[in-house]
Amino acid sequence: MTKLLLAKPVVENAVSRLTTKCLELKKRGLTPKMRVILVGNNPASRLYIRNKSKLCDKVGAEFELVEMASDADERSFTEEIQKMNEDDAITGCFVQYQFQNIYNIWI
Questions:
Q1: What tens digit of pLDDT does each residue of 49-61 get?
Q2: Domain-by-domain residue ranges, the chain?
Q3: Half-sphere exposure of residue 100, counting CA atoms within 13 Å on the CB side?
Q4: Cβ–Cβ < 8 Å for 36, 90
Q5: Which of 5, 16, 49, 97 could pair covalently with 39 via S-S, beta carbons 3.0-4.6 A apart?
Q6: What's the mean pLDDT in 86-101?
Q7: According to the model, what pLDDT value does residue 71 have?
């Protein structure tokens, strides 16, 4: 038997839950905020980030994008990460880049 799985109801449910959670947090004085560090200018990465920004808007969270050149040095990159870690207003974050081992990172 084949079962058709529809993503739309799952996404709508998740958006509804996230919207409710954001409202609850705002009532307690905390506005959810996502910061993304984009390294490089990959079109697919830009699309992915644009969709995350739209999702933040939809659920009531703030969104901030930090753009870095693909040839940014390791020191600049780690400084951005440190700033992000020290900012108490940020409740979610990620780094988006097309992986090349441009930094001394072992993944």
A1: 999 999 999 999 9
A2: 31-97
A3: 10
A4: no
A5: 97
A6: 85
A7: 87
